[in-house]
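Write out structure tokens for DHA2 family efflux MFS transporter permease subunit.
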Amino acid sequence: MSTEVQHKAKSPYGIIAILLAGAFVSLLNSTLLNVALPSMMEDLDVGASTIQWLATGYMLVNGILIPTTAFLIQKYSVRHLFIAAMLLFTIGTIASSMAHTFPILLLGRMIQASGSAIMMPLLMNVLLVSFPVEKRGGAMGILGLVMIFAPAVGPTLSGWIVEHYHWRTLFYMIIPIALLVLIFAFFKLKDKKDKNNITIDAVSLILSSLGFGGILYGFSSAGDKGWDSPHVYLSLIIGFISLALFIYRQFKMKTPMLDFRVYKYSMFSLASGIAILLNMALFSAMILMPIYLQQLRGISPMDSGLLMLPGAVIMGIMSPITGKLFDKYGAKALALTGLSITVATTYFFSMLSFDTSYPTLLLMYSVRMFGMSMVMMPVMTNGLNQLPARMNPHGTAMNSTISQVAGAIGSALLVTVMSTRAKAHGEQLMQQELGKLTEQPTPDMLEQLQNQVTGQATLNGINDAFLVAVFIAAGALLLAFFIKRPKPAEQQQGHGLQQLKEETN
């Protein structure tokens, strides 16, 4: 990042606070609608497959735009980028709050996503250039608090609001916060940037959009449409071919849009591998637990959200602490401890029954979140620490992109495992029940038997999916044994603060 700066003898905490506030509202918004989707379906008179586009469309826009952030960070100042991102996010939120038809609501959500896609890579890059390597853990711990706590608290907050108010309140409460952040950013962000004549490569942009967009859409659609759907396999084929061409083109370009040479650095590559596996395992509880709690146990959405709230609070509290521990002890000890806890608790969730008590579920979910809080940010920061400063924008964009892709792959894989195994268990249980009959079953008896075995078959399918998540998390644990504290590829002068200027009125 080639920003020329005159530092005013203090760290840019004001800038970072504004960026954190923007990141918090955008991340909170990403999961805020999940619990409200049934109410929206009824109010807007659309089906489940249509309403899911509010989540899928948001994720697709993120997946398409995040790879461009490395270019944007190098081209424009923090001030211009952040104000543009918050303006898009605010316009999208206002449009969504006023929408009385589904197309307008979807458009508003996608405008929101275009703003939020820029925020996280921008914030991570600012933190990297604002703090020396030995102090980045603490800074990244604060970022981890935002990354983890905001989306985790979303469903609980959403459940309470939808239970007491109209779903539009979810947007109404975001608007004043977004406007306040936008006003503060306009008056307080004053960094300047040398003129940079780099231009974005249109072919790279098209290939990136088709590649990441196709892969995200294909995997996110697989759980609903099935792997044999043309929507799924054609999207994946187009996505993987476009991604291969995109990567090939980036290696041939002098100034790539997204530089895959970051993977020449061993600790960054290792961090990416662990992050991919951990994101896939993380989605096991985020997707499977609501199905188990609400559909099989009859627990309300509000109580389901409350069950997950202590885990979110623990992760929020632990993130800054984990950051300080990372600065002192490094990533390896934290990752091994956290992943061991994650593997053990995920194995517990592979043995769920209809009698598992609510307090036990709450405790084990909270312990699992405690384990995960010790892994993601330390491992990610450890990998970024090895990169030269000029590659920081590419490293942060790459991390954000693989998180999106890994989440989509993980959710598709685990939903597929759950549905296919539930079907197999259902057929097996049905045969067992039919074998116990002493008379020819009537259609009514067959229907009654089918209803009896469906719940147990679904539970068995969920347990099998969690078991797959155990092996995924175990893979991340094995990789963690190879973590080392890296030496920066190039020494950054002072605190790197020559790259960022703060002028407050």
